[in-house]
């Protein structure tokens, strides 16, 4: 070991000694950890409820027999998308009856805000109706609204999603507690 | 060490070392205490995933959190315990204290990754491979960080008196 390395070791050691460790570090860490976990769970539950509301509001009257329970199960399952949890209410891949409804409604959050709303496998008429409603009421829709031939309607961006939810008659979902 | 009861034992045994390491990284005791508290909270949340030796995991949280705080926080004003000018004229009795402070100041002028590597090597006494795991790079990169840091310290004009005395 060179002289400067030895001196460096001494300096690091001497410079960091004059402070007692605060008491209750472990207890505080556990308390904060539990609080964070509760908030995460509460956020997931709120989003699940919001998703069910959205699904029902866009006309999926036949969604699952027990939507709240179903959504809760889906929300607690680990998400495959890394950045944010997503909750989904699905009819198990079954195509919607022609002329109405969408098979699936999903919302995705990023940093506690709803950043994306996806309505999947809508019938052509339903997709057109939803798109027209969003375009009519949301001036920013030209940048964040996409539809596909498969009948998917995707709305991206927190502001636009909020506007779209209002346009579709769905209240803005509550933000997860911080 | 997946048992949560062992979390308390780990904190009791390692918190002093963690606090000192945090201070050496951020150079401010209040920030160091906040940093350690945040690190322990994150560690508690992930305790089920921590293996038999929590140290690498916890040190990794520590360095990553430090870097993310460093990016986020305003650094226009840096708290310091000493005035820039020496209050006592330099003499033989003050040389030890001067050495300590000169080298400490020079350490503060190192980059974040270099300083983290130096602190983990010369304070936490970790091997290059362990440091590499914590910093998320290769052992060769760690050697490079440390080598560059030592070269900078040797080249630092303010450290010249220390080099002459050693």
UniProtKB/TrEMBL annotation, chain A:
Bias (Basic residues): 31-42
Keywords: Membrane, Transmembrane, Transmembrane helix
Compositionally biased spans, kind Basic and acidic residues: 1-18
Region (Disordered) location: 1-42, 70-97
Protein name: Uncharacterized protein
Gene source species: Thermomonospora echinospora
Species lineage: Bacteria, Bacillati, Actinomycetota, Actinomycetes, Streptosporangiales
Transmembrane segments: 42-64
TrEMBL record, chain B:
UniProt record, GO biological process: DNA-templated transcription initiation
Residue span, RNA polymerase sigma-70 region domain: 16-75
GO molecular function: DNA binding; sigma factor activity
RNA polymerase sigma factor 70 region 4 type domain ranges (all copies): 101-153
Keyword field: DNA-binding, Sigma factor, Transcription, Transcription regulation
Keyword Transcription regulation on entry: yes
PANTHER family for the chain: ECF RNA POLYMERASE SIGMA FACTOR SIGM (PTHR43133:SF50), RNA POLYMERASE ECF-TYPE SIGMA FACTO (PTHR43133)
Family: Belongs to the sigma-70 factor family. ECF subfamily.
Protein name (record): RNA polymerase sigma-70 factor, sigma-E family
Species in which this protein is naturally found: Thermomonospora echinospora
Lineage, uppermost ranks: Bacteria, Bacillati, Actinomycetota, Actinomycetes, Streptosporangiales
């Amino acid at each position: 070991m060179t002289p400067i390395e030895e001196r460096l070791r001494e300096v690091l050691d001497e410079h960091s000694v004059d402070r007692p460790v605060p008491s209750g570090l472990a207890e505080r860490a556990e308390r904060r950890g539990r609080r964070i976990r509760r908030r995460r769970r509460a956020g997931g539950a709120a989003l699940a409820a919001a998703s069910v509301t959205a699904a029902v509001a866009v006309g999926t009257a036949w969604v699952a027999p027990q939507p709240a329970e179903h959504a809760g199960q889906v929300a607690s399952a680990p998400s495959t998308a890394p950045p944010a949890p997503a909750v989904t209410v699905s009819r198990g891949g079954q195509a919607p009856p022609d002329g109405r409804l969408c098979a699936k409604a999903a919302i995705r959050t990023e940093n506690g805000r709803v950043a994306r709303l996806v309505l999947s496998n809508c019938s052509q008429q339903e997709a057109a109706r939803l798109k027209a409603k969003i375009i009519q009421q949301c001036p920013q829709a030209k940048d964040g609204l996409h539809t596909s031939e498969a009948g998917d309607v995707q709305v991206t961006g927190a502001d636009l999603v909020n506007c779209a939810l209002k346009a579709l008659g769905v209240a803005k979902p509550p933000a997860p507690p911080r | 060490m997946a048992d949560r009861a062992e979390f308390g034992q780990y904190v009791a045994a390692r918190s002093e070392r963690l606090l000192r390491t945090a201070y050496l990284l951020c150079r401010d005791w209040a920030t160091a205490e906040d940093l350690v508290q945040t690190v322990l909270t994150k560690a508690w949340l992930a305790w089920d995933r921590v293996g038999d030796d929590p140290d690498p995991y916890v040190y990794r949280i520590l360095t990553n959190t430090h870097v993310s705080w460093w990016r986020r926080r305003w650094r226009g004003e840096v708290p310091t315990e000493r005035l820039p000018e020496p209050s006592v004229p330099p003499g033989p009795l003050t040389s030890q204290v001067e050495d300590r402070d000169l080298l400490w100041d020079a350490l503060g002028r190192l980059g974040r990754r270099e300083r983290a590597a130096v602190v983990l090597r010369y304070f936490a006494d970790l091997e290059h491979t362990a440091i590499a795991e914590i910093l998320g790079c290769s052992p060769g990169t760690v050697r490079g960080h440390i080598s560059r840091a030592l070269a900078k310290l040797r080249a630092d004009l303010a450290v010249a008196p220390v080099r002459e005395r050693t």
